[in-house]
Write a structure and sequence with these properties.
Number of strands: 11
Bound molecules: NADP nicotinamide-adenine-dinucleotide phosphate
Strand order of the largest sheet: 1-11-8-7-5-6
Order of helices and strands: EHEHEHEHHHEHEHEEEEHEH
CATH topology of the largest domain: Rossmann fold
Largest sheet: 6 strands, parallel
CATH architecture of the largest domain: 3-Layer(aba) Sandwich
Oligomer: single chain
Number of helices: 10
Low-confidence stretches: none
Helix content: 25-40%
Length: 297
């Protein structure tokens, strides 16, 4: 019979609140020195429930740590031209240091065009091709919030990464792809041997069973099961799927891409959902905004 290991939770909620406390101290210092208070703006288009939740959480986090925040809401019928005009206005507004356009956008708006319209120095989401390029080349930039949050979590829990086999499941531009680049880079956290799996990978299990670190970002609830991992693995669960649940006030519960209980029993470290990668994403966005404000002053 296999021995069950005791796992340690990578607590994103706690780590993000530590980061927020550190940021609040920085803001206090900036205020005392008469500097510019970091100001983050968000553009929200339409009434997608999840987007609404994420944007509200970002605004609330700004208030909590003493950042200024602005929210610009638009009906789903806004034209691409109008949205691009607003982005241009925010690019030129020196009172704000960074802004995000919450994705997804309605079908009639070209997300790539929108991403490229945001001035790279205000792109605190790190989605602009210039910032993605700089990230890949290890130059100072804004690393996109979710991958940056995962790197922070690994670092703050002193997870060993050098020489480890890391499997990233998913190759999206906002999570999987940057994650695979970051884990392979010549630094800590990093120096991993990285394998990227995606929907065309023939046998994912063949790779995951050899992995020391698995980053799961495909958006398929409870995809990673115990038979797919080896003992002692570190598991980062990025997935968030809303599952109907009448017993919850909201009417749904959040489920990750990992079958938590059984995978946790074989893991050394694992992130929960909720309370893992999600809160770290917000903390990273705030860190990027502080950096943007410092660069602007
Ligand atoms: P995405 O753009 O839909 O990309 C999903 C990736 O997974 C794609 O590369 C896809 O492969 C791959 N994939 C899909 N089904 C697969 C399968 N059966 N086997 C292997 N690979 C498969 O998603 P995303 O934006 O990266 O998001 C992934 C998940 O993370 C979602 O649940 C999302 O809600 C969540 N998320 C969470 C946060 C957070 O802050 N916690 C932030 C962002 C996203 P192909 O490339 O071949 O299509």
């Amino acid at each position: 019979m296999e021995m069950e290991t005791t796992y340690q939770l990578l607590d994103g909620k706690k780590t993000s609140s530590n980061i927020k406390e550190e940021l609040a101290i920085e803001v206090k210092k900036i205020k005392e020195e008469g500097g510019q208070i970091p100001h983050l703006a968000a553009i929200l288009v339409g009434d997608d429930g999840a987007s609404e939740t994420y944007v509200n959480a970002k605004v609330k986090a700004c208030e909590l740590i003493g950042f200024k925040s602005s929210l610009f809401r638009y009906d789903a019928s806004i034209s691409e031209l109008e949205l691009l005009a607003k982005i241009e206005e925010l690019n030129n507004d020196s009172s704000l240091h960074g802004f995000i356009v919450q994705l997804p956008l309605p079908d009639h708006i070209d997300e790539q065009k929108v991403t490229e319209a945001v001035a790279p120095e205000k792109d605190v989401d790190g989605f602009h091709p210039e910032n993605v390029g700089k990230m890949a080349l290890d130059l100072p930039t804004f690393v996109s919030a979710t991958p940056y949050g995962i790197m922070q979590l690994l670092e703050r829990y002193n997870i060993e990464t050098e020489g480890k086999n890391c499997v990233v499941i998913g190759r999206s531009h906002i999570v999987g792809l940057p994650m695979s680049i970051l884990m392979a880079k010549k630094a800590y956290p990093g120096n991993c041997t990285v394998t990227v799996c995606h929907s065309r990978t023939k046998d994912i299990k063949e790779f995951t069973t050899k992995a020391d670190i698995i980053i799961v970002a495909l958006g398929s609830s409870e995809f990673l099961t115990a038979d797919m991992v080896k003992e002692g693995v570190t598991v980062i669960d990025v997935g968030i799927t809303r599952i109907k649940d009448e017993s919850k006030k909201s009417g749904y519960r959040l489920v990750g891409d990992v079958k938590f209980d059984e995978v946790a029993a074989k893991s050394s470290y694992i992130t929960p959902v909720p309370g893992g990668v999600g809160p770290m994403t917000i903390a990273s966005l705030l860190m990027n905004t502080l950096t943007a404000a410092k660069r602007a002053s």
